[in-house]
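Quick one, tokens below:
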């Protein structure tokens, strides 16, 4: 600015004009008259306007590429990105990362935005007593494994209503049999069976309801009576009644799933157990307590023996004509010595066992999640490497055919003499 003003003043001096004519000087330089007046009175050297301001942090500079990679994939949760940066050597704080993410929202992928609708009546929060209630819900996620394959999983979440201790487990679908398996595993992890379960209005739990009169699903009712708890259904379209479970579904989607690398559903569940163990040892910000510390003081009913729970832990499947059963999209072989029409299947991690109705192990498999068909020894009465002989085409057998001749009655003729009938029909009426 000083150079521009000096050039203009030199031209004004040659023209014989006052070099500090502010009006003319402002027109020649485009600088406002208050600014020129300040330069005339105080000189061109001013105090720096940013004096006293803190220099921006450069702790994130080496990691900006990694952060941008996460943001472009839709991973915007700082609690997910922060632990990964710590592994890479980041020494800053979480707040610095949050500020950086807020300034780089342009890197987020285009996502559908939902409009928040104002709630009607004011709700009232209520507290649940110790050992009283577990809240239950399903959450559905799309996850990409380490091989780049998209999977659609159903996640069963269960949370203690008193202390907020969490449990999650992933399944390939949300069928009733997986509901029973997930509930039993959740009871085992949370240390027992509460007085009641709070869930929404899912068809695997009830058939119909008229006011307070509920017609339970028969299998679910038997399950309740066997384990000794009762169920509270939320009011329809009032999901926040079981807000802890709803919040856990959202927390799972925002904190556990983003950026997760896994090979199969068994690996995903192993990581989910480690995640639950980690989060249950931290302070629950909503309840202001550590769930593990409070949950240990609660008293629950004992879980029945494994033999009693066997029908629920091992779903029943029909044995096909080739001696195999279908489970979770895979086919498993049953020995030919087993002559019943149905068998039971139980998966523990990546191991699958075919069991008789009495619990005897028929065959077991270590699943690699790539092979679709798993054969067992003695699945057929001939060696497995030999293929069965192709059967010749069987005769069709008698087939009824009808021919009508004008007004005469309809005659029934066997297919075996169809050629004779056709030849007679060509020569005359039949």
């Amino acid at each position: 600015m000083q150079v521009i003003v000096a050039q203009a003043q030199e031209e004004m001096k040659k023209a014989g004009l006052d070099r500090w004519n502010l009006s003319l000087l402002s027109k020649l330089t485009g600088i406002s008259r208050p600014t020129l007046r300040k330069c005339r009175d105080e000189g061109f050297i001013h105090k720096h306007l940013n004096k006293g301001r803190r220099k921006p942090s450069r702790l994130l500079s080496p990691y900006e590429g990694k952060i941008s990679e996460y943001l472009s994939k839709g991973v915007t949760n700082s609690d997910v990105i922060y632990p990964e940066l710590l592994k890479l050597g980041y020494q800053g704080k979480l707040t610095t990362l949050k500020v950086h993410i807020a300034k780089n929202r342009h890197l987020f992928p285009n996502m559908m935005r939902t409009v928040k609708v104002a709630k009607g009546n004011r709700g009232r929060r209520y507290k649940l007593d110790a050992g009283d209630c577990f809240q239950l819900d399903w959450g559905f996620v799309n996850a990409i494994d380490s091989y780049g394959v998209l999977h659609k999983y159903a996640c069963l979440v269960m949370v203690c209503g008193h202390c907020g201790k969490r449990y999650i487990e992933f399944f390939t679908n949300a069928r009733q049999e997986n509901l029973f398996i997930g509930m039993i595993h959740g009871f085992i992890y949370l240390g027992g069976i509460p007085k009641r379960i709070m869930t929404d209005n899912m068809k695997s739990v009830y058939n119909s309801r008229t006011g307070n009169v509920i017609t339970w699903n028969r299998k679910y009712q038997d399950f309740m009576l066997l384990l000794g708890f009762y169920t509270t259904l939320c009011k329809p379209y009032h999901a926040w009644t079981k807000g802890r479970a709803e919040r856990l579904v959202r927390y799972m989607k925002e904190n556990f799933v983003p950026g997760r690398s896994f090979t199969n559903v068994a690996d995903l569940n192993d990581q989910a157990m480690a995640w639950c163990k980690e989060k249950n040892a931290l302070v629950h910000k909503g309840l202001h307590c550590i769930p593990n510390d409070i949950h240990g003081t609660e008293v629950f009913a004992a879980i029945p023996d494994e033999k009693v729970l066997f029908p629920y832990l091992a779903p029943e499947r029909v044995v096909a004509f080739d001696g195999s059963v279908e489970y979770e999209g895979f086919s498993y072989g049953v020995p030919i010595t087993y002559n019943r029409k149905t068998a039971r299947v139980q998966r523990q991690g990546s191991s699958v066992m075919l069991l008789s109705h009495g619990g005897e192990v028929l065959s077991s498999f270590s699943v690699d999640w790539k092979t679709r068909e798993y054969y067992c020894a003695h699945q057929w009465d001939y060696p497995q490497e030999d293929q069965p002989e192709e059967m010749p085409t069987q005769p069709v057998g008698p087939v009824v055919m009808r021919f009508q001749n004008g007004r005469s009655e309809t005659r029934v003729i066997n297919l075996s003499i169809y050629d004779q009938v056709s030849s007679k029909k060509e020569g005359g009426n039949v």
